[in-house]
Amino acid sequence: MDRRTLLATLASGAAVAAAPFARAQDYPAQLIKWVVPYPAGGGTDVIARVLAEAMRQTLGQQIVVDNRPGASTNIGADLVAKSKPDGYTILSADNAVLAFNEHLFGKLPFNPEKDFTYIGAIGKFPLALVVHPDFPAKNFKEFLAYVKANPGKVNYASPGNGSPHHLAMEMFKARTGTFITHIPYRGAAPAMADVMGGQVPCMFLDLASGLPIMQGNKVRVLAIGSGARSKALPNVPTLAEVGVPNTEVFAFQGILGPAGLPPAVVAKLNGDLNRAFGTPAVQKRFDDFGMEAMPGTPAQFAALSRAESKRWGPIIKQAGIKLD
């Protein structure tokens, strides 16, 4: 190879190597697609849209929410996992993508630990144990005594098999040695409706979906599955306070991109996400949902996700829950 050819080859290689860095420095230069693996109108979708608007103002580019529901979030997650790692396709990821599905499905089209870049956590909202107002138990102690005295005779609702609400009750059952029968629904709304109507006496209900009916006394809230009392429901004790330790149950969300995102792109998105938490519109929406913002680093979000997967894997296995 002569000197001119060698220099041209080296220059070409340097340009290729520098391309991701250059793109990162210019990021974002076009519209960003934010994939939500749920239908429009639900809590995950609403949170993504309010954050997308707040982040648009600092990123300087439009962020369009793209709803890709189906297969317990696997359709949307797989789409992002296989996207070009340039920062223009990101994902709202929750317990299902990050902690549950690898235990619920025999095989996933992606690896939640290896096929994504962790960008940042969004927040978490606890799940609360609620009963119909006419249920014989008026407090948690009475509820526990009642279900222990009536094994298998008390039903509980959930938005579906493998949902955080379903698994929260399975963890509760494992911790308390109780037997309560699962009645799965297709979504949180019909499950809540039947608990409010008394067709099913109880469920674990997330604050994002159920805070208005909790505060409106349409259901009785017996305990909340958070590490501390919720400011939205300050008079409701935690499960630890009523004698059920190590039973923190919450749904969490964060943002992922495909594996291989340039570090500068990750830093830009993470910084703008953390700044968005301080905007009035985002703060109000989080308060409406009883949601706790989780500003932090990508590494902290990854650590939370892996810890939750390890925590829930044995519960899923013990309960024998499979979605395929």
Automatic annotation (TrEMBL):
Signal peptide interval: 1-24
Gene3D superfamilies (UniProt xref): Bordetella uptake gene, domain 1 (3.40.190.150), Periplasmic binding protein-like II (3.40.190.10)
Keywords annotated in UniProt: Receptor, Signal
Pfam short name (any one): TctC
InterPro entries: BUG, Bug_dom1
Recorded family membership: Belongs to the UPF0065 (bug) family.
Protein name from the UniProt record: Tripartite tricarboxylate transporter family receptor
Organism, scientific name: Variovorax paradoxus
